[in-house]
Amino acid sequence: MAHIKWNANLKLILSDVDETVADLYTAATFEMCKELEKVLAHRTVIFFITGQSIKSVQWRITDKIKPELRKKILIGHCSGAEVWGFDRRGQINAKPFYSLYKNILFEKQKKRWREIVNQIIKEFKLQPYPAEPIADFKTKVGNNPLAIMREDRGPQITLEIINGYDLTPGQEKELEINIPHTHGNLDLRIPIIERIDQLLQESNLPISPRLAGVFAIDLALKGVSKTTAIKYILDNEEVLKAVGLTKKYLKPENIEVWGDKFSVKRGGTDRHMSEALAKQVRSITFREENPEEFLEGYHIVVWDGQKHLHEGLLEFLSSR
User: For residue range 45-94, what is the model confidence (pLDDT) as tens digits?
Assistant: First the structure.
């Protein structure tokens, strides 16, 4: 039996999406959505904050939530580049609460950004495919390390290097690319990121390439992170009021973080949610991670149930 218990005093939950609420490029299960509805019906706000696009969060999660409960949901998509909410009818608002994408980049810069991505694909001889569930992708391409998934989310472009983040020495030799060992792995993402960063700097674009998830590269706006979006919301009484919260009553014991990548050593981006909050706020990782790799002094715990990732969260929710 798990020792981590449900916090009945929660008013705000900050949650990752991929592998926390739903599998990659897959809709949340019926059971998960029903459990989330119970949380929302208890007048608790859920702020989904993810590298995925707003449309992805909608079709995978919020479209499956009862319309009358969606007003208690916030979505920070593309690593916090924009934050959206819902009206009382359950429809997405006409405009975001804030948007850095529209304020930072000119159209010429957006075009050049995409030209650089295409250049990288040619230089590394990558073979891009549309985003789809990982199992379907692997059935299609096998173990080809140059086959990738590319998704342009507007404020963020993501390259999923699914078969290239842990190469064998033989594969590295075949690719004829010098790949440094990173945390014991031959990770094709490292030389790709280094080259992308060089081209972005030469074009003076405010874009930052980042390792993300297990095998992704996120190209996102500089200065944008999950921390940025959370701090904006918590400091904005108008946004808090829109979802039925007030800053005055948001104590550390009323907030919780759900994610699956908190390791500093491995570049886990969910730790940025914790960094936006008081250190005593509980953060739960549903991945089997090493606590020694977490932010020092923060209350980050590893879910100790029988299941992990999105199945672990469902187990946690069902245990209430």
Answer: 999 999 999 999 999 999 999 999 999 999 999 988 999 999 999 999 99
Q: Which residues contact 2 (CB under 8 A, 6 or more apart)?
A: 303, 304, 305, 306, 315, 316, 319
pLDDT in tens, 153-177: 999 999 999 999 998 888 888 888 8
Count the alpha carbons within 13 Å of 274 in the hemisphere toward its beta carbon: 26
d(CA 76, CA 53): 9
| pLDDT (average), residues 127-156 | 95
pTM (two decimals): 0.88
User: Is the pLDDT reported for residue 120 higher than 70?
Assistant: yes
In the chain, what are the domains?
A: 12-100+224-318 (3.40.50.1000), 105-221 (3.30.1240.20)
Q: Which residues contact 320 (CB under 8 A, 6 or more apart)?
A: 6, 38
Q: Which residues of 88-110 are buried (b: 16+ CB within 10 A; e: fewer)?
A: eebebeeebbbebbeebbeeeee
- Strand bridging mode 98-99 / 82-85: antiparallel
Q: Say if residues 83 and 232 touch (Cβ distance below 8 Å).
A: yes
* Pairing mode of beta strands 73-77, 82-85: antiparallel
Q: What values do phi and psi take at 217, rounded to 5? A: -120, 120
State how far the Cα of 153 lies from the Cα of 234, in Å rounded to an integer. Answer: 25
Query: In whole angstroms, what is the distance from residue 233 CA to residue 152 CA?
Result: 25
Q: Look up tokens 């900050």; give the residue.
A: 14
Task: Find the DSSP H helices in the chain.
Answer: 30-41, 54-60, 101-104, 107-123, 134-141, 169-175, 189-202, 226-234, 237-242, 271-275, 309-318
Pick 280 or 167 by higher pLDDT: 280
- Among residues 34, 35, 17, the alpha carbon closest in space to that of 26 is found at 17
Closest listed residue to residue 271, CA positions, set 31, 2, 14: 14
